[in-house]
Amino acid sequence: MFGSVGGPWKRSRRGPDFDRQVATYLIRRADAARDRHDWGAAAAFYDEALRLVPERADLHVQRGHMLKEGGNLEAAEEAYEQARILMPNDADLALQFGHLYKLAGRYGDAERAYEQALSFKPGWDAPAMELAAFRLRTDVIMEVPTRAVAERDLGGTLRTAAAELTEPVTIAKLVPALAPDTERSYSATVEEGLSLKQAGRHEPGFWGRRRTFRGVESIRGYSQSAAPIDEVQLLVDGTTVFRGPVRGPYLSAEETSGVAKYVFNIWFDFSAIALGSHAFEVRSIDAYGESQSFHDDIVVAQPFTTAELPDSDALVGMKEVDPIVLEHRIRSAPSMIRSAQRDVLNSPARSILVMRTDQLGDMIASIAAIRRLRALFPDARLVGLVTTANADIAATLALFDEIITIDFPDDPIERRRIMPLEQQEALRRKLEPYRFDIAIDLAQSSVSRELLRLSGARFLYGDQEGSFDWLTASFGIRTRDRLNQLDFVPHSRKALAMVEALGAIAHDSFEVVRRPELARDRLEPFGIGDGDRYAVLHMGARIAFSRWPGFIALAERMLIETDLKIVLMSDDAGVRAALPAELIASSRVQLIDQRLPFDDFDAFVSFAEILVGNDSGPKHLASLRGTKVVTVHSARINWNDWGQEQIGMIVSRRVPCAGCNIFHDTEECGKDFACIRDITPAEVFDAVRAQL
């Protein structure tokens, strides 16, 4: 991560004292990152220190803590195991194993670890209390198998397998993790506490990587409590800025202890709060005055504008102090009606920054990729950002319209490339006038990725190494030698693959595919004659809550204001009983409430004047066949990700909680799926009329 010690530090100066000096510096950096809750950086600094002082068991433990806080439980377990080798009978380490296993849902392992901690330190309250809690809640704590558990219980799987599948040579080729569990009950643990599902996003910045709020945001989550929850509060710097009711209780089918879920989805405008760092708390209050809380240090930043992010339904471009008035304004605002023809870059790329800020060999390995970039964007100005080590070779390639050379050295102490703040500002000012559309870092290593943030480009692109989630897009391809797990494909081909992927993202490759052999006369048994013009209103969707409730009202309006026949399709047997009398009586309306053979369904879609549907497969089939489409799209996922390709219109709504990605736990919406239910039949009809 940090490069290698070299440069001004002569090899003759290396030794135990030097290593301890460097390790002490790295540990200070790790401790500082830990204290500001930058778990990833802290883990990395502890890891680098351990390369120099591997005998420090306490550093292995600290690294494990950081990995656990960052959610990498497997790596945390490995770090704790390294510590256990150095101190096998440590009670506190055994306790930490227990906490880790409990967090991972490995409750049997957790109980055994707590028992071990108690055996190492008899009478210790901490593991004793954990064990007591386990034994009180054995009726609701049921372990969900992890991969390790599945492998440990392989014998149970094999006992149920056919005799021929028990030979060692045969079973070594099989995957027990895919086999159904025959001995365990899959039941989730229900524990009291407050959980956030959405609340800003973690962004890098002056204060480090912090949860960041910009303008109108959703704070969505739930409290799980045995006592009834009365209200939820939002506090900034200790001041209550919102209080309101929760929804619930919701009880899971497996719950027997009385712990229920109480849901909240707060839409709040942070524009009234000063920009900068703040203390943040979400607090729920139960009927007895007891509270559950979530605390974090946050950043309030400048809101984006809808002009900057026109395609994002998560961006609500309005200001309102009163949350009740704010919600009313959001829900009464017009829906978004957009063309399905979309350009990921929003406009042609005219200026591209290409970074290769490393060594001579790296630049040579990127030649094919840069040539391909030139071919993909022939009208763009390519500016190379390079180091002195590869500036001369870059000048001989005739690939760049301009070359900018920077000093970006490896630091021997921090073991990474660094740039002082004043040089960063000078580079930022130098790059700003270019108004780059794309900035691409061709390095696979993550050491130069942060430089992209100085480019000012609207589309930041690089390798996914290092997990920089602020990138607009990232690319990752790894080949693995079966024995040492290292790459075996030349670096030049991986750089070329990165550029090819950018081309695929930026350029549309969609094509209409018709079926010449598909006959229209398939529709005659369903009341659609050879000369009939008709619309298909497809009411179904696999995810029930993403089904728009306005199809019947839309059919009524289309019956009056168009001359089309209306084909209503639904897999709900109750739809027929819900149809108004005028639709049932009309010879222009056909209801199909049965599953059709694919060719019949394909014919309905292929020969329709237009198809109106939910976010579901039929709208994709319609666009493939070249049929005009209007999709009514919920905001649970992005319309520009899963909307149909290139043909027709997409109707959606801007809501702060867009991107919730709710699937199974429908009670967690908290807003009655306003993102789909607030779309009006009049808005969808306007989109239909624009296509006819």
Please describe what this structure looks like.
Helix 3 (57-69) runs antiparallel to helix 4 (73-86), helix 6 packs antiparallel against helix 7 and helix 17 crosses helix 24. This protein has 24 helices and 25 strands. The chain has five domains: 11-147, Tetratricopeptide repeat domain (Serine Threonine Protein Phosphatase 5, Tetratricopeptide repeat); 148-178, no CATH class; 193-333, Sandwich (Immunoglobulin-like); 351-506, 3-Layer(aba) Sandwich (Rossmann fold); 520-691, Glycogen Phosphorylase B (Rossmann fold), CATH 3.40.50. A seven-stranded mixed β-sheet has the order 11-25-24-23-20-21-22, with helices on both faces. It has 692 residues and is an alpha/beta fold. The model is unreliable at 1-13, 137-153 and 183-187 (pLDDT under 50).
- Provide the CATH top-level class of the largest domain: Alpha Beta
Whole-number mean pLDDT: 87
CATH homologous superfamily identity of the largest domain: Glycogen Phosphorylase B
By secondary-structure content and strand pairing, the structural class works out as alpha/beta
Measure the end-to-end span: 57 Å
Major sheet summary line = 7 strands, mixed
The number of helical runs is: 24
Rg estimate, integer Å? 30 Å
| Contiguous uncertain segments of 5+ residues | 1-13, 137-153, 183-187
Which secondary structure elements does this structure contain, and how are they paired or packed?
Layout: H1 16-35, H2 39-52, H3 57-69, H4 73-86, H5 91-104, H6 107-120, H7 125-136, H8 147-152, H9 154-159, H10 168-171, E1 193-199, E2 201-203, E3 210-214, E4 216-225, E5 229-236, E6 239-245, E7 247-250, E8 260-269, E9 276-286, E10 291-301, H11 323-332, E11 336-339, E12 351-356, H12 360-365, H13 367-376, E13 381-387, H14 388-396, E14 402-406, E15 410-411, E16 416-417, H15 421-431, E17 438-441, E18 459-463, E19 473-475, H16 491-506, E20 534-538, H17 551-561, E21 565-569, H18 575-578, H19 581-585, E22 589-592, H20 598-607, E23 610-614, H21 617-624, E24 628-632, H22 639-642, E25 649-652, H23 674-677, H24 681-691
Parallel strand pairs: 3-10, 12-13, 12-17, 13-14, 17-18, 18-19, 20-21, 20-23, 21-22, 23-24, 24-25
Antiparallel strand pairs: 1-4, 2-3, 4-8, 5-6, 5-9, 7-8, 9-10, 11-25, 15-16
